[in-house]
Every structure is written in C-alpha cells, then in structure tokens.
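Regression test attached.
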Amino acid sequence: MSQIENVSRRRFLRGSFGTGALILAVRYLPPMLMHVHTKDGQTDADRATFHPNLFVGIQQDGTVYIVAHRSEMGTTIRTSLPLVLADELDADWKRVKIDQAIGDKRYGDQNTDGSQSVRRFFDTMRESGAAARWMLIQAAAKHWNIPASECSTELHMVVHKSTGRSLGYGELAADAGRLTVPKREQIQTKKTSQWRYIGKGMTSVDLEKLCTGKAMYGMDARVDGMVYASIEHPPVLGGKINTLDDREALKVAGVHQTLRIDPFKPPAAFQPLGGVAVIADNTWAAFQGRKKLKITWDNGPNVSYDSAEYKKELRETAHKPGKLIRSVGDSDKEISAAKNVVEADYYVPLLSHVPMEPMVALAEFKDGKVTAWAPTQNPQAVQAIVSSELGIPVSDVVCHVTLLGGGFGRKSKPDYVAEAAVLSKKLGRPVKVVWTREDDVKFDYYNAVAAMYMKAAVDDKGKPTAWLQRSVFPPITSIFDVNAVYGDPPHLAQGWTDLPYDLPNIRIENGPAQAHVRIGWLRSVANIYHAFAVQCFTDELAHLANRDPVEYLLDLIGPPRTLDFTNVEYPNYGADYKTYPWETGRLRKVIETVADKSGWARKKSAKGHGFGFAAHRSFLTYVATVVEVEVTTDGEINIPRVDTALDAGIVVNPEATLAQFEGAVVFGTSIVRSGEITAKNGVIQQSNFNDYPVARINEVPAQTNVYIAESSAPPAGVGEPGVPPFVAAFCNAIFAATGKRVRDLPLSSNSLFG
Amino acid sequence: MINLKVNGVDCTFDGDPAMPLLWYLRDILGLTGTKFGCGISLCGACTVHKNGEAIRSCVTPMSAAAGSEVRTIEDLGANGLHPVQEAWMRMNVPQCGYCQSGQIMQAVSLLMTSPHPTDQEIDDAMAGNICRCGTYQRLRQAIKLAAEKTA
C-alpha cells in the first residue's frame, strides 16, 4: 500500500467528492507507473548485487532484472529484447523482472521507430547475457575449485555435471559481482540450436495488466499536486495569437488560469506549436474552459494551403522531369521511341496516426530540473527538446517512459511533452497536458501526401523495355529545414530507389514539394505510397499483357541476385549493405510461398470476387501478400481472406510477429478505405473518428494467415513491413473484382467508389 | 449531490453534473483502467457497465449516472479473472492494450445478452470499439472461446 502514497488523493478527499473515493482508490489504484527510479536515474539492474553491464542485474534471491530501453507501444518489444538476453543468460523467464529505462544516452539509441529495435540490439542483448553467464560460471568454478571448462549452465543455475553439483544464480551473485567483466572475445554466445526462448514465441510480460486495466499509460500518470492542461493551438501551422479573451474560460468551475505558450521559431521540429493553455483541477474542467476562450489568430503564410489545389500541383510536378535518383540504361530514349507506352498517376493523401491514446504528458519542473512521465517512442528526444525549450542541461531532464497507447511514429515527436515541461516551469507545479482526439487529428505530423507518375514502354508480349517512375511529396526533412522540398535519400530508399526489377532501362526521379503542415514518420512511411504505385502499376501491366500477375511480377524481378547500388545513394534503412543485402531471391521466395499457401493458381477472379497480389521489401524484410475481396451489388467491399508471407531473417518472437502482421493489414485497410486528411485555408478539416474513420471489426479482413519463413539471416523489421504490400494487393484485388483501377486513395473520396 | 455506486462502493459527487462519468472515474476516483479515446462516443475505449449494460462513459454525464451501479474493468477481475479476460489472455489479444478495457467490457456485455454470439452479432456488438493496432481477429476468437467456456 505504500505506493498509494505517491498518488494524489488529497484533493478528492478534502473536497466534496465523498467517501467512496478513498475506498476505491485504496482498492484499485495501481502503483505509480511501472518503475520509480532513484534520483540518479539508476535502475534495479544497476543496483543489483551482480551487475555486469547496463542491461542486466542479478540479486542474491535469484531475481534477474533486465532493462528494456525501447518503448512499448504494442509490438511486445519490452518483452522480446529482454528475452534475447535471458536466453543467453539461461535465465528462468519466470524469475525475470523488466526494468523500463528512462531516457539516457548510455543505452545508445532509444528511438523506438523504423522497425529496428531487434536488429540494432540483438547482438548487444546476446553479448550482455552471455557475459553475465560467463561470469556466473567463473564464480562457480572458483567456488568448487575446478576449471571453468568443466562447468555449464542449466535453467538459472551453474552445474558441474560429473559431480552433480549445482549453484543457483542468486547464490553466485555476490561472487560473480566481484569478478572482472570479460572482454568480448572471451565470451561465446549460444549456437542457434541451443536457444531456449529465441524463435519460440512469448507473450507480453504485461499481458495480464493489459487485460485488467492495471497497465499504466501516459494518460494514467499522476503525481501529487498536479494540475491538468488543455491547449488551444493555432489552427494554421505557424499561426500566432492576435487577441485573447479568457474571461469566460476563467469562470468555469475548476479552471485556475490560462497561460500562453510562445509560437515556435521555424523550423517546427519538436517544438510546442504555441497557443493558450487552460489550467484546471481535472481534465474535464480544462476542456470546458478551453471551449470558452475567445482568440483571434494571425494565421501566417500557411493560410493559403488548400489540399485539393495542392494535389493538382503535386500531379503537375510529377509530370515534369525531376531530380534523377537512379538510372539504368536510357529510359527516356527507349520510351520516346516506343510503340506501346503505358502511363498512370497514383496519389496517396496526408495520413494521420490516431493512436488510441491521444498525446499526453506529465511534467514537473522543480529546482531547475524536469521530471517527465510520457508515452514516448523517443525519451532522448524528450530530453533534448525540454532542455532547449527550458534552457537547462540535458542531464537535468529525466524522462520516464510509460506504456504507450499506440504510437505508429507519432510519439517519436515529443512536442506534447515539451508543452507539459514549459507549462510546469511557468506554474511551478506538475502539469499534465491532455490532448483531445480533435487536437490529435488536427495537429499531427502527417504521413506525406504523395503523387507518383508511372510510365513504361512495353514490347509485343507486354513486358517493359523501359520504366520511368517519378514521385513528389513534401519531405519529412521539412520539419527540420524549411527549405527542404526534395525527398531525402533514406525516404527515397523506401521502395523507390530500390525498384527490384531486372529491366534494361530504368529511370527513377523525385520532384519538389513545399510542406504546409508538419510531416512525419507513420508506420511504413514512404513505403506506403511507393509500394502502392509500383505494385499497382505492375499489376496494370500484367493485366494489359494478359498474364498472371504473380508470374509477371516474378518475370520483372528476374533471377535471384543481390541488387547493385554502386554509384547510387541507397541508405538501406541505416543497415550495412553487406550484412543486409537486397536479395531478389528472398523476395521471389516469399512470393512463391504465399502463392502456394493461398492456392493462388486455383483462384479465379470474377465479377464481384477478386484476388490481388503484391510484394515489397521494407525495413529489410521481404513480404508478399494475397488479398481476396468480395464486392456486393451495392458496392460494399468485404475482405474474406488475406495471406501474407514474410522473410524477416531470424525472428526472435514469432508470436509477436504474427500479431504485427495481422495488425498491419488492419492498418492498411484504414489507409485504403478512408485514410485522408485534407486542409482548407490552412486548417485541417478532419477532427475525430467520424471524419477520419479507421477500420472497425466489420470492415477488416475476416481471416488473416501469416507465414513466417525459416531463416538464418540476421534479424530485420516486423512492425511496419506488413502494411505496404497489403495496401497495393487490396487495390489490385478490387480491380480484379470490379475492373476499376484504384489510383487515388482512399476509396471513400474516390469518385469510382465514394 | 449525486449518489451512485462504483464497483460496489457508495459514492457521492457534488461537482458539475455535466461532467462525464469517464472523468469522474479517472480524475476524481483514480480508476484509470477506463480510457479516454475520442470523447464523443466513437471509439468505445471508455466503455463501462451501468446497471449491467455497456455504456460510453465519455458521453454519460454524472447527472445520468445518478442512482446507478457502475462497474469498471478494475472490478471485473477483482476476484479472479473473468472468463472473457482469461480468453483475452489465452488468445494473446492485446497489442498496445489501450482499447482493451473497453473491448472487454463490451464483450462481457455481449455475452450476457447473447451467450453464443454469431459472427454477425459480434460485429454488431463490437463495431463501436476501435482497435488501432488491429487485434480484431484475435478478439473475435477470444469472444468465441469465452462463449464456449461459459457454456
């Protein structure tokens, strides 16, 4: 019960809320957050008797603390990475406790984004576990006075097989803690055949809490003396307050005061948007007070932004020669001389993340330092922005990472945490900033709107002799550099630069686009619009050639080989190309697998019933997807079945991987059916799930089958790669069922289907 | 003065009677298992039971909760997991988990009225509850599993 003391109840009790509150609070209130660190930011692992490295600590009672330094937003990473360490340690998972790390550069990168947690830290986790295991073995050998080579480990203990002696990890913790940490070359990680957890599948360590309402999200954070804030942001990006009348707002019961937040200085990056905060006793009072604010705004130059006009501009730009990204042969020459030329325009609008938990953060400024509790994908970015906004050292910002009620890339951008810190400094007390869903939809960092122009010269058999593709989208780099208008290499590399086709002439271009809203990463990012254009255009060509789409796609991909990016800027998701080469053979394999498993050869599309196909590599993972659709006579589109095959290299947690790919098709369903953010006079026109709908249970695939390839390749991403091929395959299936080509997303605003 | 029962405990409230039950539960009582997702009854994250029926607490003013018995996710498993919660764990339904309190409360309510729901009945009952992570396939299976168990 002592942890209940962390929770502010006094206000409930002192006032008029009745006796029930105390009883309920004592009965149900969960302990404050997941972990309370000491002031120096130490974890339980740090404080343990045996603490060989950053990520693990063992107590004398045998408890093993493993640090989760990445954020949990539903991918099970808080379980999966510690599981890798536990495996190498031969630890009993039941005796492992997970220690959620605060933001701290000593852990290396903590930005839980880009489907890279496992691949970036797989070796680190293995070596950390193996080093601890090595030291436990040394300690036992010393105790028994025998060579370490005679000792081995079983579950949570060191054994000496020939004499049958054993010592538990807890018993060895003190002795092991006195040994020198081994050098990397002294330790040996397990052979894959010895893995006890990796590749077997494990549910989340938080599973029961997630099913009982006890899991602590940012929305649930509380500290003593805290107040609530709701912020009216400038309706147009870059706007400023002209006049403010808060008299009516201040009359709302429970409202304390209002506070202005300065507008950001461009570029926006992760700065607060500015506006007026209403400070109140509770969330509801803050919301109510905000409704009574009377503000006139100086909207600034983005007031001219109209998304319908902007779409036309993007398309015009896409029809003009752009910046060359990659060239093979001479596409322009071949196309201008060709008899048969096919061209098509594709378009994907701005998309919003809408995680179920809106942006929320709690921050306390005290004695010149900030402590924040936030559902953030990137606690070190929280430290950086709070430091620069408040003019305090990064080391004086402690960011506790709560569970995230979804992230999808939005919560990598900590503007909302900076708001809480700025307000707390002004008020001198802890402030919890709560965004409404409307705030979330209107003030997102949207996935870029994109226009793609596709063109191919085809021979008599319908196979391309030359290929041209040109994309135009406001780049994510525009949030850091107001002059950025071209796609940057890492995002062009997302399914554009790396067209895997074996064709004699290829030309890949990108055109300029000025951003008028904040652009940001959203699950799968540029792969969404790039794969949509490439995989749907390929399907168009297959149908024009009267060929089976799968057979045609395999023909375009050509023989198994490693793509050659000599003299091409291809960042490959930040991964070393030798370790993670682009192998067409692996793409072919997942295509063949899913074709086989789905019974593609037997599937015959007919009016009202169609099958679509697409394949794509993203985040170093190869995926192929078959989508089946039924279209009713009144135009309703159902999805009876999806089959998807993936090769993500070594899969640490197959159970979590299945879930990610099941979820990806739902995410993709939302994109195709209804994902569209529009703007008029610089103001975002959507506000909530009524006008920005996301897929519900009756709209999603009835059955999703996922096939994971056995692979010994190094681990790759699993959170994002399922989305892009699904989007394209879904649209290709709609064509197969209706004869109508979906080139402009979403369906809801498409004149063919809307 | 508004009197109501929350998870079996008598409570009184004399604040703004227009305050939604959601914020009374979360901010005043500290029962944070019930979630805020949209504020206008579009997502179901705030689902609780009022007199045994699933309601959206984000649009239920305290005045409308007067005299009622409210049950939240915290109480559902207070004396051992509810069969629906067990099924949720068995099928490994949650990803981020934020919507799941609402999903579970809605599913419990469905099974009270329809112990063996068809797919259509599941769609009809659950279509008001959004899961952005996309756990629908598993939660459908979990509802069926719970229906078998309670049969």
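Expected vs. actual: identical. The mean pLDDT of chain B is 97.
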